[in-house]
Design brief:
single chain; about 400 residues; alpha+beta; Cytochrome p450; 6-stranded mixed beta sheet; 3-stranded antiparallel beta sheet; 19 helices; about 50% helix; about 10% strand; globular; oxidoreductase activity, acting on paired donors, with incorporation or reduction of molecular oxygen
């Protein structure tokens, strides 16, 4: 076991992005708490499941990166605070207050009422895809599905869906274009500003014309209940918009690839569609869309696995490594749709456990179930090694494109 710092350049390569799991296995064995050297800040990666769960509930690891040191600004740039200072990046009691405001909108009963609308969106998307015999399932299905669902839930007008999607995709795919870095940063900052202004304008419009949607409910919490500050309206709306579609879109893409490259499991699920809820959990464990939990900062010197993490260091809990920990999952690198759900942390752990878990599970079950029913003999249109993925610098694990053929 070693605590030698690993250069970030050794971890975040194209080969790593294509298949990070051999690297995760090595780190779990050789450096379960791994210092990562970079030019911007000290970072430590935690890769074993028991340590990951402990870190995700450790009060010494703060999510408030906008506090002293302004770590979030150093990581994500000058325009990040206007959109990202929200419950995801806060600690109790602020996190508790903000989460309570929006939790009612994600109550399982309310989410279940959305099932017919989700099924309608899925069918409409597939009606356009099926006759073509081929599709880019990211562009044509995995991305628009959760974006349309969360937009409906928030109250974003259908006429604005396309431009909101365009802005979020610029942010999501940052670093994937061939533009010079300065142009790429400028494009992302422009998208952030436009989205920020759009959401601020939408909040004001909803004030004058409230409806049965989540933004109107947030305004009510601000104006009448006093539980939400004015500045928090836009940041909370952005979090719900982005978190409500980004990870679900990437999960749908990753899950489809996992099934197409494990044909025995694909046929099992076709033959036994009642396995779908269990299969969703295994697919999330197998190749989740959020490989590393959003960053935390050590508020004091702490120690994990005998490794000292100095105060002020950034700590990344590697969810996708923890979910392949052989101490908790037998043969963890094998996709097994009959596997018991087990202790996976694909939806997080502790007070920041995913608020939209019911919605994400429902969209995944309806979406993947429909793909299995309606796409005859689906197959990748390119070798799996040639699939274009989000860049190494992205906090998400997902695909830029998912070309498939079916007949």
């Amino acid at each position: 076991m070693t605590d030698r710092a690993v250069p970030a350049s050794e971890l975040y390569t194209d080969e790593f992005v294509a298949d990070p799991y051999p690297t995760f296995a090595r780190l779990r064995t050789d450096a379960p708490v791994c210092p990562v050297s970079s030019l911007r800040f000290d970072q430590y990666l935690i890769t074993r499941l028991d340590d990951a769960k402990a870190a995700l509930t450790d009060p010494r690891l703060s999510k408030d990166l906008y506090g002293p040191g302004q770590h979030y600004l150093r990581i994500f740039g000058p325009n990040s605070e206007g959109l990202n200072k929200n419950m995801l990046n806060s600690d109790p009691p602020e996190h508790t207050r903000l989460r309570r405001v929006v939790s009612q909108a994600f109550a399982p009963r309310r989410i279940e009422a959305l099932r017919p609308r989700v099924a309608e969106i899925v069918d409409d998307l597939l009606d356009k895809i099926v006759p073509q015999g081929q599709a880019d399932l990211m562009r044509d299905f995995a991305i628009p599905l959760p974006m349309m669902v969360i937009s409906d839930l928030l109250g974003i007008p259908a006429t604005d869906h396309d431009r909101v999607l365009d802005w979020t995709q610029v942010i999501r795919t940052s670093g994937s274009s061939r533009r010079p870095p300065e142009q790429e940063r400028a494009a992302v900052q422009e998208a952030q500003l436009r989205l920020n202004h759009y959401l601020a304008d939408l909040v004001q419009a909803k004030r004058g014309n409230p409806a049965d949607d989540m933004i109107s409910a947030l305004i009510e919490a601000c104006d009448h209940d006093g539980t939400l500050a004015e500045s928090e309206l836009v940041t909370t709306t952005f979090l719900l918009l982005f978190a409500g579609h980004q990870t679900t879109a990437d999960f749908l893409g990753n899950a489809t690839v996992a099934l197409l490259t494990n044909p025995d499991q694909l046929e099992l699920l076709r033959a036994k569609p009642d396995l779908l809820p269990q299969a969703i959990e295994e697919l999330l464990r197998f190749d989740g869309p959020l490989p590393v939990a959003s960053p935390r900062i050590a508020t004091e010197d702490i120690e994990y696995q005998g490794v000292r993490i100095p105060r002020g260091s950034i700590v990344g809990v590697v969810i996708n490594s923890a979910n392949h920990d052989p101490e908790h999952f037998a043969d963890p690198d094998r996709l097994d749709l009959c596997r018991d759900r087990g202790p996976h942390i694909g939806f997080g752990h502790g007070v920041h456990y995913c608020l939209g878990v019911s919605l994400a599970r429902m969209e995944a079950q309806i979406g993947i179930g429909a793909l299995l029913r309606r796409l005859p003999d689906p197959r990748l249109a390119v070798p799996v090694e040639q699939l274009r993925r989000l860049p190494a610098a992205s906090p998400f694990r997902g695909l830029l494109e998912l070309p498939v053929q079916f007949s």
